[in-house]
Design brief:
CATH topology: Rossmann fold
Oligomer: single chain
Strand content: 15-25%
Number of strands: 9
Radius of gyration: 17 Å
Number of domains: 1
Structural class: alpha/beta
Strand order of the largest sheet: 5-4-3-6-7-9-8
Shape: globular
CATH superfamily: Vaccinia Virus protein VP39
Length: about 220
Amino acid sequence: MPQPDDDFGVPIPGRVLPQEAWARTAIKKLPPPPLDWTAVFGRAAPVVLDLGCGNGRFLIADALKRATTHNHLGIDILPLVIRYATKRCNQRGLQHARLAVIGAYELLEEYVPAASVAEIHLYHPQPYEKRGHIDDRLITLEFLSLVRKALVPGGLFVVQTDNKNYWRDISRFAPQLFDFTEIEGPWPDAPQGRTRREIYARQHGLKIYKGQGTPKSA
């Protein structure tokens, strides 16, 4: 019997199309940098990056809503979750979504051209709370400088965590580089959660911390 396509009882957005309508969304090997977004997606459109996309819930939902207007790239360092995300995007016919296995820092530093991305979303990065591992956290001033560099003027950076200590650092770093605002309450488009981790956190009564901003001038 097929397993339900959901996260903790919340269905994955979209529906599985007939196989002839499936897309091919996997990037098995990124082309040499810098990326040519028109070549990557086969069309010119604003690019949305989902860094650490996990099983693809947010990317799928957003790509379904903005299929005709935006291109979406989801990346993660874990091949297993990218396989899940790729399968789901393929089955939903998301022709202008792409998935790749790569780290967020490496992608921004080596592959993404400056001022070429409309939005960067980063949901629940690994908090690395164990002693001796705090320095492994992704979000630093250096990383956020790469985010700012990648975004077009007026572009959007969205970040979310359920880790209070990590949020303390994020809310200290982000306003130095972005006109940054903390967001209260559930997402209107996904009140149960935009991601698998957020759904889990909400169901277990964990506080969600999130904010968004546009780049300040360098």
